[in-house]
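haha ok so turns out i had the wrong file open the whole time. this is the CORRECT one, sorry everyone. sequence first:
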Amino acid sequence: MMVTALMTAANGWFFYGIELAKHPVAANVVVILFTTLGGLAFCISIRFLVRPPRALIIDSEGIVANLRRPADRVLWADLKGAHLAVVEVPVYWLGPIAIRQKWKIVALDLVDPRAFYDRRDMRRRPWLGYDTGMRPEYFPIHYEQLDTDADRLMYIINEGIARYGHAILNSSLPKTYPAFFP
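then structure:
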């Protein structure tokens, strides 16, 4: 980290410091600024290089969708079914450009969504921002970045629901959901 900071400061001194070297305070400020920016760039690059791979933990108790928060486990008893769906963000217009985003998800249908989200929110730190209290009727699992195909993932999840959960077949489930940020 120190080598990167020193190299960045040397680059900054070489390109920008020649003119500023005439003023002693400005020369020190340039060195401090580029050292700080180099250290920050190094820390950010390490953050993206050391990021753990996206993974799911599926066991006899339930599904952990986020490895950083294993307490946010979705228990099999909370699930009544699962299906493939797409989450669509409304179209945003930036001049002549239309921005559309879609995410492929496995929507886990919850037996009692209110109780599930209350229990989940109770284990988290309090949210200090505005919260509408609205929660979706499903729990999304984004599977595009996982190293498995959707059919295998659906088979594993449906087997777990059939074995440990409350399996209720419902063919009238929507295949597309609007963007919802719980």
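The chain has two domains: 2-49, 57-178.
again sry for the mixup
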